[in-house]
Amino acid sequence: MRLSTRARYGLRLMMDLGLHEGKRPVLLKDIAREERISEKYLGQIIIPLKSHGLVATRRGSRGGYVLGRPSAEIRIGEIVDALEGDLGLQDATGEQAVAEGPGELVSRDFWEGLGRAMRLYLDSQTLQDLVTRLKSIRKEPAQDAHYVI
Amino acid sequence: MRLSTRARYGLRLMMDLGLHEGKRPVLLKDIAREERISEKYLGQIIIPLKSHGLVATRRGSRGGYVLGRPSAEIRIGEIVDALEGDLGLQDATGEQAVAEGPGELVSRDFWEGLGRAMRLYLDSQTLQDLVTRLKSIRKEPAQDAHYVI
DNA sequence: TTTAAATACTACTATTATACTAGTATTAAT
DNA sequence: ATTAATACTAGTATAATAGTAGTATTTAAA
């Protein structure tokens, strides 16, 4: 159960947009450079974020991306949903367990509980929360820098 | 972020073993029939459970599988760990983020928090808890049976 | 009105993981 | 010896991941 790069890159993308909230649209090129992620790949990742209204765009020259809503009103869970397409830990088959045994029932309940626990955490923080943390780190730069030998 | 069948089947497998705790070893064949899962595939899935000491075996005729420890002392998190090989949502690359930007740092912390939330839930219940639920369902059978049209 | 700068779209691809299946070897009770 | 079981090894089809590449479209500004 590994998190996809889509979700990880996408969150950092959103944080970058949050960092420039209220300012001019941000270029994908700049985010790509800042986060050291392929610009083309970011272009793919941002599509579901747009379609979920989390990101707004201005096309053409002087264009770029801005947040679709205030960062304080965007829960991280929404971002993850957009990128992972709802984190259904379950089968998610439409065929609806025709003849479900007791083992399946109990374990399904258990996994649904896990899903609820995850959702609770993901919805407990807003994009603004992360951006605030990001800003504070940028102010006090190499405070606890760790050197890799 | 979908749960693998390994984890789902494996949990049901462990529940079946828990159901027969203190009795004779259980045949893989019987579990396969009960849970409607390929016996050969279960044979693969049970390997990491053995190597983690969660399952003990008796080979040869009249052999089979038993729990490696009392069900009350097995947290579900241990089962998931054995099957998913530790749920590192992160990169888990050994190369240790040579030059980590602030965005990476903040988002990494966030994902680690998610991992902790998941672990908290997974470790909050023991195998015995699930087996107890399983038994109670078996006693009051079609109480709230749901018919699929 | 042209040009340049940007996003939008479409298609392809290499690699890896998943979810199995099959066959043979080994063990141990009877 | 025979039989009933697990243990091991190797393969495979499918799908998802993580991209890359190229072209089309839009729009501000010169």
Sum up the structure in keywords.
Arc Repressor Mutant, subunit A; two-stranded antiparallel sheet; 149 residues; DNA-binding; mainly alpha; 6 helices; homodimer; 5% strand
What do you see in this structure?
The structure is a homodimer of 149-residue chains. Chain A is mostly helical and 149 residues long. Chain A has one domain: Arc Repressor Mutant, subunit A. Chain A has six helices and two strands; from the N terminus they run αααββααα. In chain A, helix 1 packs across helix 6. Chain A binds a DNA duplex (30 and 30 nucleotides) through helix 3.
Quick summary:
Chain A is mainly alpha-helical. The first copy, chain A, is 53% helix and 5% strand.
What is the CATH T-level topology of chain A? Arc Repressor Mutant, subunit A
CATH architecture label name of chain A: Orthogonal Bundle
Provide the number of structural domains of chain A.
1
What pair of chains forms the biggest interface? A-B, 47 and 48 residues
Strand order of the largest sheet of chain A: 1-2
Report the sheet with the most strands of chain A, covering strand number, pairing sense and barrel closure: 2 strands, antiparallel
Counting copies of identical and different chains, the oligomeric state is: homodimer
* Terminal-residue CA separation of chain A: 30 Å
Beta-strand percentage range of chain A: 5-15%
Mean pLDDT of chain A: 88
Q: Say how many strands of chain A there are.
A: 2
Low-confidence stretches of chain A: 92-96
Cα Rg of chain A: 19 Å
Which descriptor suits the 3D outline of chain A? elongated
CATH superfamily of chain A: Winged helix-like DNA-binding domain superfamily/Winged helix DNA-binding domain
The ordered string of helix (H) and strand (E) elements of chain A is HHHEEHHH
CATH class of chain A reads Mainly Alpha
In which range does the helix fraction of chain A lie?
A: 40-55%
Secondary-structure-based class of chain A equals mainly alpha
